[in-house]
Amino acid sequence: VTESAAYQSNDRTIASVTDEGVVEAGPVSGETAVLARYMNNIAVCHIALPIPGEVAQEVYAKLPTHNEIDRLVWKKLKVLGMLPSGEADDSKFMRRSYLRVIGQLPTPAEVRAFLADSSSDKRSRLVDTLLERPEYGDFWANKWADLLRPNPYRVGIKAVWTLDAYLRKSFRNNVPYDQFARELVTAKGSTWKNGATVIHRDRPLTVEIGSSVSQLFLGVRLECAKCHHHPFEVWSQDDFFGFAAFFARVGHNGGLSPPISGGEELIFTKTSGALRHGRTGANVLPQVLLGDPLTIGPDKDPREVLADWMTSPENPFFAKVMANRVWAEIMGRGLVEPVDDIRATNPSTNEELLEFLAEDFRSHGYNVKHLIATIMKSHVFELSSTPVKRNVGDQRNFARAYRHRMRAEVLLDAVNGVLETEETFAAMPPGSRATQLWTYRSSSLFLDTFGRPDPNQDPPCERSSDSTTPQILHLMNSPALNKKLANDTGRVARLAASDMTNEEIIDEAYLLMFSRRPTAEESKKAAAILPSKDRRLAVEDLFWALLNTPEFLFID
């Protein structure tokens, strides 16, 4: 059937494939997958194209290995003939760690103390300390808000607030991930009292909540199989409707004008209810993925059966997709991209590593903080973003750190932290940080410009970390930013009026924004600005210039 099959390469720059199934090497070294499809059958072949030239085996043997993550990454790099970049210095490690764990910059005092610490375990201790900071809960809840936060016009303002409070409490208390998922999937009660119920208020149709849960918690996009067989996977319409049938007995009571209402709604489990198959019209029995149809009695909530299967150690999807999500948040990209699209035809860049992370996550009670710490205590996390000759083209094998811009809320908090200014948000207490916002409808031109999700978009909401011209112009010319720089009670005014020398002010600025001291050349250039007759204006110019640098805007 070779001539009748269809072929596709996931990356033609590494390897292309002809209509006859002949694989041809591309101009770029790396690894990709080539797919062959015939009728409803799919086969995947992994193609590795190493970098030309030999690397002495002892080079890989001598690479630092803090934990199993390092061993598995080095193993993949060895296959591809790649070498990792050097180690990031303490300043970069500290700044990166703060922004990855709590979404805030370290203070100058914290930077000085860390740089002065000569103990060999200071990086590991820093990770542990950050995971216990109260800001951790807000920062990671904000990430999950992108996945779950509904449009308030669909569910009402109070329900949005209740869900947000539930997410923040869950992450502050480090609720085990299997318990967190179970609470959301099986939620009952009032949308004004139990935040977990709001996802069912937001997705009242059985087919909606089914496909949302499969994508969110299993990394399986069943939506593609709603009307036809999934074009790139094994899933059929029977799988789609069988999975959705677990939610056929979810009851809804209340609301002023369902499905669009701001009123309170009660979510409960009915003793009966069925979902009709979209093609055959027949009632569908609940069916887990890769399983058989189930008959569930009236005294048992089908969602509890689903949650039992999802969180069981034998489930091949549940731990893996969360491990991939967390890896992506810490390392800048997932082992699988998109992070919630795990399938044979979209393979991981390092399947052995993903399997290890998933099993380690399971064996430690689905402890999210443990998963984060395991990743951050690897040497791979410590790598510099500066490429070396044998990893210049790497974008997916973690031979170096991947730089990307701070997300909108983190960047706004960083600007306010540097300048000692506050933001005023509707329905929030004075002094609230952007990462504490519970709705995307709080007006902010800054957040909208830097990629905050559209409040009218249904979850999961996508963000882009790409830099745009409006963002550049906003930082350069924004009246709001200029007002912060010129604030009479802000940091700039305080430093300019202080007894600090110009050199001390320059050091403070660099520690604030970059978590490092300036180089001799940087100090010289900055010092040339400050002898101005108007010291305050000169300090404003210095801070404005540093705020507009890629080093400030990006996590490196």
Protein model, in words:
Helix 2 (68-80) packs antiparallel against helix 15 (351-363) and helix 9 packs antiparallel against helix 13. The protein is 43% helix and 9% strand. The protein is mostly helical. Strands 1-4-5 form a 3-stranded antiparallel sheet, with no helix packed on it. Strands 6-8-7 form a 3-stranded antiparallel sheet. The two termini are 49 Å apart.
Layout of helices and strands, plus pairs?
Elements: E1 6-9, E2 15-17, E3 23-25, E4 30-38, E5 41-49, H1 57-61, H2 68-80, H3 90-101, H4 108-116, H5 122-131, H6 135-148, H7 152-155, H8 157-172, H9 177-185, E6 189-190, H10 198-202, H11 206-218, H12 237-244, E7 250-254, E8 265-269, E9 275-276, E10 283-284, H13 302-310, H14 318-331, H15 351-363, H16 368-376, E11 404-405, H17 408-419, H18 445-449, H19 469-477, H20 479-485, H21 491-497, H22 502-514, H23 520-527, H24 535-547, H25 550-553, E12 554-555
Antiparallel strand pairs: 1-4, 2-3, 4-5, 6-8, 7-8, 9-10, 11-12
Helix pairs in contact: 2-15, 3-5, 6-8, 9-13, 11-12, 14-15, 14-16, 21-24, 22-24
Shape: globular
Number of distinct helices: 25
| Average pLDDT figure | 94
Low-confidence stretches: none
Radius of gyration: 26 Å
- Name the beta content range: 5-15%
In total, how many beta strands? 12
Strand order of the largest sheet: 1-4-5
Main sheet overview = 3 strands, antiparallel
User: How much helicity do the residues have?
Assistant: 40-55%
Termini separation (Å)?
A: 49 Å
Decide which structural class fits the backbone: mainly alpha
